[in-house]
Amino acid sequence: MSMLARINGVAATHIALTDRGLQFGDGVFRTLRIDDGRIAFWQRHSDKLAQDALALGITPPPAQFWLDEIAALGLRDATLKLIITRGNTPRGYAWPADLSANCIVQAHAGPAHRADPAGLKLCVCQTPATWQPRLAGIKHLNRLENVLARAEIAAAGCDEGVLLDRDGAVVEGCMSNILLLLHDQHGPALITPPLHDSGVAGVMRSVAIDAAAQLGWAIRLQEIRLPDVLAAAQVWLSNSLLGVQYVSGVGRQIWTPTVHHAALQQSVRALLSKEWHQLLS
């Protein structure tokens, strides 16, 4: 099935040339799944979408607006993209105070992507993550670095790629967040970059952190370098389509799933069982 879309409560196939998302990438978005009429971690998605919009000074619609729009599409299984742009202006970066946001739902029907039991092959991208503290953590529409990095990943024959910042610290994957399992004298610790200056704070990153905390693991938001990745007992990538997927290798370093991987997956499923939103009966 081709893509279905709704803009501001109306079925649509086109967007205005004056939309600021098209002109400047002036907006935010989220990608998520509806599976058998249910949306996983809906409250987290809607909260993060609203927070990101407000961080850019854009007033988001209430969460119920999105649920009504998704239901209007009538799809039980689909990949969804929810987009908020600042609205329409003829030209120039400035905007009027009374500008109304454009709220867009895109849907591609079809079953969910299933995790590859062989894990994900990872490479290191030459395209760096942009340093911009004001936008750090926000899933905004300016994604050119990810577009360039994705081309590198395809050329390398890998599944995903690591983006480094200007100082060589690990920020995230091109399409995901990165999480490491390290062991010290106190036991397992889940390590992930703090994302103070770059990157997107994804919903599944927060789920993985909560799932690890439920297991009693230490949680550390700290700078990561490539040697830390290579020394990790396990490496995961997370996003809302993959879930929390283990990395099988980067370069010559190979990992296989451990008991800690199984424990984390079980903990994620336990959270999911409590955080489904039943949209369609």
TrEMBL record:
Pfam families recorded: Aminotran_4 (PF01063)
InterPro entries with a match to the protein in the record: Aminodeoxychorismate_lyase_IV, Aminotrans_IV, Aminotransferase-like, BCAT-like_C, BCAT-like_N, Class-IV_PLP-Dep_Aminotrnsfr
EC number(s) stated in the UniProt entry for this protein: 4.1.3.38
Record field: catalytic activity: 4-amino-4-deoxychorismate = 4-aminobenzoate + pyruvate + H(+)
GO molecular function per UniProt: 4-amino-4-deoxychorismate lyase activity; pyridoxal phosphate binding
Principal EC category: lyase
Gene Ontology biological process terms in this record: 4-aminobenzoate biosynthetic process; folic acid biosynthetic process
Cofactor(s) for this UniProt protein: pyridoxal 5'-phosphate
GO CC field: cytosol
Keyword Magnesium appears in the UniProt entry: no
SUPFAM superfamilies with a match to the protein in the record: D-aminoacid aminotransferase-like PLP-dependent enzymes (SSF56752)
Keyword field: Folate biosynthesis, Lyase, Pyridoxal phosphate
Pathway annotation from the record: Cofactor biosynthesis; tetrahydrofolate biosynthesis; 4-aminobenzoate from chorismate: step 2/2
Family according to the record: Belongs to the class-IV pyridoxal-phosphate-dependent aminotransferase family.
Summary of subunit composition and partner proteins: Homodimer.
NCBIfam families found in the cross-reference section: pabC_Proteo
Record-given protein name: aminodeoxychorismate lyase
